[in-house]
Amino acid sequence: MSEAKILKSLDDLKGYKEIMITGGEPMLRVDFLTSTLTQLRSNNPNVILYVYTALYNPRIDDVMKLSDGVHYTIHENATIHDLCGFEAFQVYAVKNPGKSYRVGIHPDIEAFIPIIPKVWSEVRIKKFKDQSECIIPVTEQLYILDIADYERR
């Protein structure tokens, strides 16, 4: 098992074949996210970039132009606003095929969630693990980026 490392520079990710960007919530800071995706793609044009999110942002097109796919998560405590956001994202995905769209849904959600099967390359319904239960596989590396520290540089 590898331990999480502090990411000092996006240049440290050169050579990776696949990079997933997750939270906090990346879609809260679309300008920072698109800047990060642009630099990662510039450093490694063939890298596969995924964004993990639980939040729809009307600027999703800015993100999708730079990424290869999205893993959309509907958490156990999802609100009606969250579910409407998922619906908006799904409509976006229908109109913008050709990317990898995956969705994870917590099984304890009692709301009706319509799924358009042709949109999704993967649909999973399962309980999410607490961060303390997640073991980083030997073949993977978790990097933590302190955004405030990174932006001060």
Please trace the helix and strand order, writing H or E for each element. Answer: EEHEHEHEEEH
Strands, total number: 7
Which strands sit side by side, in order, in the main sheet?
2-3-4-5-6
Name the overall outline.
Answer: globular
* CATH topology (fold) name: TIM Barrel
Low-confidence stretches: none
Distance between the termini: 31 Å
Helix content: 25-40%
- Radius of gyration over C-alpha positions, nearest whole angstrom: 16 Å
The CATH top-level class label: Alpha Beta
CATH architecture: Alpha-Beta Barrel
Strand content: 15-25%
How many DSSP H or I helices?
4
Reported for the largest beta sheet, the result is: 5 strands, parallel
Give the averaged pLDDT, no decimals: 91
The number of domains: 1
Content-based structural category: alpha/beta
Describe the structure.
The protein is of the alpha/beta class and 153 residues long. The chain has one domain: Alpha-Beta Barrel (TIM Barrel). The mean pLDDT is 91. It is built from four helices and seven strands. The strands form two sheets. The chain has a five-stranded parallel β-sheet with strand order 2-3-4-5-6, with helices on one face. It has helices at 30-43, 60-64, 80-95, 147-152; strands spanning 5-6, 18-21, 48-53, 69-74, 100-105, 122-125, 143-144. It starts with a strand and ends with a helix.
Summarize the structure.
The protein is an alpha/beta fold and 153 residues long.
